[in-house]
Amino acid sequence: MDVKEILKQIKGGNLSSFYLLHGEEPYFIDLISEALIKEALPEHERDFNQAIIYGKDADLLALKSELKSFPMMSNRRLVVLKEAQDFKYFEELESYFENPCETTVFVVCYKYKAVDGRKKFYKTAQNLGVVFKSDKVKEYQLSEWIQRYVKSTGYDITSKATMLLAEFLGNDLSRITNELEKLAILVEKGTTINEIHIEENIGISKDYNGFELTNAIAKKDMVKAMKIIQYFEYNPKAVEFPPLIASIFKHFSLLMRIHFSPAKTKEALVQTLSLHQFVVGELLISKNLYDPKKIASVIALLHEYDLKSKGVGNSNTTSAELMRELVFQIIH
Predict the structure, then answer these.
(1) What is the total count of domains within the chain?
(2) DSSP code of 189?
(3) 15 and 126 share a domain?
(4) What is the dihedral of CA 235, 238, 240, 241, to 10 degrees?
(5) Where are the alpha helices (DSSP H) in 203-318?
(6) Fewer CB within 10 Å: N-end or C-end of the chain?
(7) Residue 240 CB coordination number (10 Å)
(8) Domain assignment of residue 114, given as a range
(9) Segment 217-225 mean pLDDT
């Protein structure tokens, strides 16, 4: 069962007696648990029939007592075990699953890693209620996820603004949604969010960022690339060297795939590479400027300068100086 279906059932009042929410991506775990807290009980019933417990501080007997308690002037109780990955007696809850209280909705929030599916505990949990594994959004799916999320909130967003968010914030979904929620307070609903909105309200420069540096290198625009590097030199907190290397490496890796891909049209490459049309269009422009032999030499350079940035064969050259050397050698 996916997130949408689980949320739909919760909103419709179709609640399970148990939810095991686990996995690397905390955003979806929080989304489901907050929906349960909001919908399981009316507000006036929560004081007596809702218990939110944190794993690090939880006592097994006290937790079981909460789970076995009967509701007061209500049809159900809600017990939420947050940060369950820190609960020392996690697997000992299996005895409760074998004889659960029918009037208790038990929600387990196990974050940052998955529960071992081979354990008897896990299989028992699957038979009892809803088990949801919250996986990280893959990097190639992030732009599409951002666009879907923005549209679900009543806005639209340009391709460049999407790329800026993905580049600057990575696949930290909680951070992305928090920033977009703050932006929604300032921007009228129905607006198409663009790079200027991002720059003015989130603090990501629309002109001086890792995405634009990679774009300048891709188009062999030396003047623009050097201006961006100078901005980084004056604003060292704006970007870090390793993510820049990773961004450039990703670009040239995709270029190599395009050179040897049987798919030749833009539309076919969008499907083959699972990328946005805007990105594929930019890659096709760059493909004409870098042949496979040059791409191979660029990848070797990236490896060399990644090591230098970590102090291997380099004692005192600054990150900005290393980046200038690297970009000059790539473009020329």
Answers:
(1) 3
(2) T
(3) yes
(4) -60
(5) 210-218, 222-234, 241-260, 266-273, 277-287, 292-309
(6) C
(7) 14
(8) 3-133
(9) 94
- 260 near 291, Cβ under 8 Å? no
Q: Which residue reads 């580049």 in tokens?
A: 167
The mean pLDDT value for 151-178 works out to 90
Place of tokens 């060297």: 241
pLDDT digit string, tens, across residues 45-62:
999 999 999 999 899 999
Q: Is the pLDDT of residue 314 over 80?
A: no
Give pLDDT tens digits for 230-251. 988 888 877 788 888 998 999 9
240 and 280 share a domain? Answer: yes
- pTM of the full structure: 0.73
Q: What is the mean pLDDT of residues 217-240?
A: 89
Calpha distance 248→210 (Å, rounded): 9
Q: Tell me, what DSSP letter sits at residue 135?
A: P
Residue 230 and residue 147 in one domain:
no
Four-point Cα dihedral 66, 68, 74, 78, nearest 10:
50
Averaged confidence pLDDT in the chain: 91
Q: Taking the mean position of all CA atoms in its chain, how far away is CA 30?
A: 13
End of a domain among 133, 151, 183? 133
Are residues 121 and 150 located together in one domain of the fold?
no
DSSP secondary structure letter of residue 65? H
In the predicted model, is pLDDT for residue 14 greater than 90? yes
Question: Could you tell me where the beta strands, DSSP code E, fall in the chain?
Answer: 18-23, 50-54, 77-82, 104-111, 130-133, 156-157, 192-193
Same domain for 171 and 291?
no
User: What is the structure's pLDDT at 163?
Assistant: 85
Provide the token pair at 311. 């102090």
Count CA atoms closer than 13 A to 257's CA, side-chain side. Answer: 14
Backbone phi and psi for residue 195, each to the nearest 5 degrees, phi listed first: -65, -25
Same domain, 280 and 161: no
pLDDT-based confidence at residue 96 (cuts at 50, 70, 90):
confident
